[in-house]
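Progress against Task 2.4 (sequence-to-structure conversion) is shown through the following example record, which the project officer requested during the mid-term review.
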Amino acid sequence: MKVNVSECPIVEEESNADAARFFYLLKDSGEPLWDGCTNHSKLSAVAQVFTIKSDHGLSETGYDKIIEWARSILPEGNRLKENFYAETPRFRIPEN
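Structure tokens generated for the chain above:
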């Protein structure tokens, strides 16, 4: 049986928390780290620093020091959050 998709009703529903978080991250993947930046998105920069933190067993203080240094050399108006606690809420897994 062949179904004509254009005849199917459209059902709109609110996205759940997981879907909302996914779309929030997806938006960040397309947002440049600063206006005019072409080689890093807001998400790619944070993901790279999280990877360094994880690979080298850095503390949250170590992460914060990397971010502090990076923000000092990035152009004003960059979108890198100021510390670990400001960035982690988007990556937390919701409790069920």
